[in-house]
Design a protein that fits this description.
By secondary structure, the protein is α+β, with helices and mostly antiparallel strands. 17% of the residues lie in helices and 34% in strands.
Length: 87
């Protein structure tokens, strides 16, 4: 990954429950996508409890661990998914 890729504001982080069974997800997958939709980096964070989603602080910690910083608000979507712009 180049420096330009990591500093671009056109990246988005997407989060979705894993496994995809909405009744008992045990974690959340984090994927950073570039402007073309290509996955640049991904990781999974285990939830403290399957019924309790990650907090905003926990989400931001995972984003930082991936080498990015959130630059806008989280947009919550159906199915426990969320996304936010990152650089």
């Amino acid at each position: 990954m180049t420096t330009d890729e990591k500093t671009s504001t056109e990246h988005m982080v997407l989060i979705y429950p894993y496994p995809t069974d909405p009744v008992e997800p045990t974690g959340d997958v984090f994927e950073v996508h570039d402007a073309t939709g290509r996955v640049v980096v991904s990781d999974t964070e285990v939830r403290d409890h399957p019924e309790v989603p990650l907090t905003l602080v926990q989400r931001d910690a995972v984003v930082r661990r991936l080498g990015y910083v959130r630059t806008g608000p989280w947009s919550e979507e159906a199915g426990g998914q969320a996304q936010a712009p990152v650089r």
